[in-house]
Structures are given as C-alpha cells and as structure tokens.
Design goal:
Length: about 425
C-alpha cells in the first residue's frame, strides 16, 4: 500500500509538472486569486477539453478524498469526450494514479474515475438535472455549458458544490447567445478567459485547421465558433435572445396538434450539412410551442429513424418534410421504416429569409414558446441574416417548416408575395 501511495504521489507531481511547464499555454493554467467560477470562452480546437480535464484531475490528485463533478451536455459526451476522448481525463491520468482492483479505476457503468488517494471524478449529464440533487462536491468541471438543454442542471450543481474551504467551478465552452452565459459574464466572482482557435494552431493538424477555415472563416458563425464571440443578434437577423427568452416556458399546456418537421441533408459525410428535425405543436387558441430539436449530422437511415422516434414519442399528427432535394425518396424512406407513419411533403419556392419572416412575426407577438432551451437552434435563429453561409441553418429551416404548417392550417400566416 505504501509503495502504491508513493508511486501515485510521484506520478501526481509528474502530471502537474507536465501540464504547467510543458503542454499548457499561460491562458490554460488555472488562475490564482479569489474566484468561484473560471469561465473559459474559446473557439473550436483551442484546447478547452484538455484544460478542463487537467484542472479536474490535478485537483483530485492533489486533494485526497475529494469529489469532483464532471458535467457534460449528454452521457455520450461524458464518455466520448470528457472521460475517454482524445483530450479526456483517461488520456492524461497515469495508470499508477488509478485505484487498483476489479471494477475500480474507470467505472463505466457508474460514470466514475476513482483515484488511488480516495478521490473520485463523478460524471453527470445535464439532461438529468435531478441526479445532481443528492451528491456534494469540492470542485466541478462543466463542459460545453452553452449546449446544455436544461440550464437548471447548473443551478442544481451550484447547490451541490459546497464541500471544502473553497469549492470552485470551471466552465469550458464555445459561446452561444444563451442567457445563462450572459448572466455569468456579469458576475464579480467569475474570472473569464477568452481564446480563439488559432491560438492552438501549433497543436492542430493542418488539415483540421484548413477545414475549420474553409467552413467558418469570414462567416457570422465563424465569429462564434472560431473567435468565441457571443453574438446575441446581428443586424438583419429576425430573432434575438431576448425575443426568444421572454416567451420561454417550463410547463406544457394541452396541444391540439403536433408535427415533426424535417429539413433533410442531401449527403451524410463529414462536411455535410445537418438534417434539421424539430417537433412543434399548437394549442386550440393558436399558441405555438417548440417541443424538441433532434437535428444533427446523420445518414438518411438514421435521420429517418430519429424522425419516426419523435413522431411516436410526442404522439404527433404527422411528419412534414421539405423535398426539394429528396423528392419521393424522403417519403419512401420513412414508409420503409414505418409504413403507418403519416407524412406530408412541402416544396421551397422562396428564399429562407422570406419563409422565416411570418414565423418571426409570431415570435414578436409572443405566440411562440420554447419548451426549455435549444442552444444550437437558437444560435442559428439569432445569427442567420439571409446570407449564403456554411453550414446551412437546417435546424432553423425545420422549425420554420413546422410552424408554417401549423399556422397556415387556419390561415394565420400572412405570406409575403415575392
């Protein structure tokens, strides 16, 4: 036992030294001083995950029997990124520092990393805020906070961060126009570090850097994804964070109709656009609700199954899909997966911005409500100005198709002739 403890202590010193004097840039080193939250707002590839992983691990190694919370947007992110990802905790922790024994060390089923000194890194998903009600922590690492669908998970974490003399929280995220981030930036107990993708150019593959530049450089989204700007609303954009926030709700009324809407991507490669999949509903008195956003990069088979999954989960009336590129193939795909699904196709004959204007008017009237937070969707809403851009705002397109279908069913949308 003494030998194991000595090995762990030696390796702890090596981890700390390797990070502080070797890998870390000055902006990646945990700041000194009196603070409660270290907020890192940085572009893609800056090194956010590695910074959070090192901070959490070093704290746990230097403070025996400590409990460190690691909270990510989903359990998938926890496993694939924060714990076992290429920059995750398991990529930097020496084997000698892990607790030995069957089921010890990294416990996948328990979402825990157990160290030789009694410390634990305990993993949580922001999709389940109530799981943070019971435990208590000395320190916390929140990864991609701007992508959390349930901001109340952060509140529950703060209640649980109460062990030790100086419990602190580290947040690593690419910024989005999210109310929680904007609130944190105004607090006196928050230390903020900002960084761009290009600060880490020496450690990024040239091909990756070229891909990021090709996809985002010179675009509005690039200011957010590469240069870490919080873009609340652009001139020409139809939505703002405040417009969405004022009608956000937590409780759902009885709905008269529910629709799953799809804006399908043509291809499914690494450089493809996303397939937009949203779920929207309306009440008898024509109030509209955004219920879910399941958009993402998927193969046709995957997005077809996801759309049908949402159709059954929400007991939807039918699926509506834009078919400019897919034609009859979209219906054929859905019917092959589930022949009972109800389906309707729509064809785009006007530009995206023109299609979106009547829906933005419904938001301005306070008649569209978001059931929870949809970070990626809301970011597209607040940054799209009608300019041709990559990636395409497919989440927004799907939302517009769904709300258009709901609103025009009673002749309420005032279409602009073009």
């Amino acid at each position: 036992m003494t030998k194991l403890r000595n090995q762990g202590q030696v390796k702890t010193a090596e981890v700390y030294t390797k990070w502080i004097t070797g890998k870390a840039r000055p902006t990646q080193i945990t700041p000194s001083g009196d603070w409660n939250i270290w907020l890192i707002l940085a572009g893609r590839g800056w090194g956010k995950t590695l910074t959070g992983a090192y901070d959490a691990l070093i704290y746990a190694l230097k403070n025996p029997k400590s409990q460190v919370a690691v909270v990510t947007p989903t359990f998938g992110d926890l496993r694939r990124v924060a714990f076992t990802g290429i920059s995750g905790v398991m990529s930097i922790v020496p084997p000698e520092c892990l607790l030995e024994g069957r089921g010890q060390g990294y416990n996948h089923s328990a979402s825990e990393i157990r160290l030789y000194n009694g410390s634990k890194l305990m993993g949580f998903s922001a999709t389940e805020p109530d799981r943070l009600r019971g435990p208590q922590f000395h320190r916390a690492w929140c990864d991609e906070l701007a992508a959390w669908r349930h901001p109340e998970a952060f509140d529950q974490l703060m209640f649980a961060l109460r062990l030790g003399e100086n419990p602190q929280c580290v947040i690593t995220t690419t910024p989005k126009p999210q109310p929680l981030l904007q609130q944190l930036l105004k607090r006196d107990d928050v230390v903020t570090t900002r960084g761009t993708t290009f600060e880490n150019a020496d450690n990024l593959a040239e091909s990756s850097l070229s891909l990021l530049k090709e996809r985002y450089e010179g675009t509005t989204l690039g200011r957010q994804e590469l240069y870490a700007e919080i873009i609340d609303k652009l001139d020409g954009a139809l939505w703002s964070t405040q417009l969405i926030e004022k009608s956000r709700v937590k409780k759902l009324p009885d709905l008269q109709k529910i629709i799953v809407s799809i804006d399908p991507a043509v291809t499914s490669g690494a450089n493809s656009d996303e397939t937009g999949i949203t779920v929207v509903g309306k009440t008898e008195n024509s109030e509209y609700y955004v219920l879910d956003d399941q958009s993402g990069k998927m193969s046709p088979e995957s997005w077809g199954r996801k759309a049908i999954e949402m159709f059954h989960k929400w007991d939807a009336d039918y699926i509506v899909a834009e078919v400019n590129n897919g034609g009859d193939l979209v219906e054929r795909l859905l019917k092959t997966i589930d022949s009972s699904v109800k389906y309707k196709s729509v064809v785009a004959t006007r530009g995206k911005l023109v299609r979106a204007e009547p829906i933005a008017s419904l938001y301005e009237q306070g008649r569209v409500h978001h059931m929870g937070v949809f970070p990626e969707l809301e970011s597209q809403m607040c940054t799209y100005t009608g300019e041709r851009t990559r990636p395409s705002p497919d989440r927004l397109d799907a939302l517009v198709w769904g709300l258009t279908e709901l609103s025009k069913s009673r002749g309420e949308t005032n279409w602009r002739i073009s």
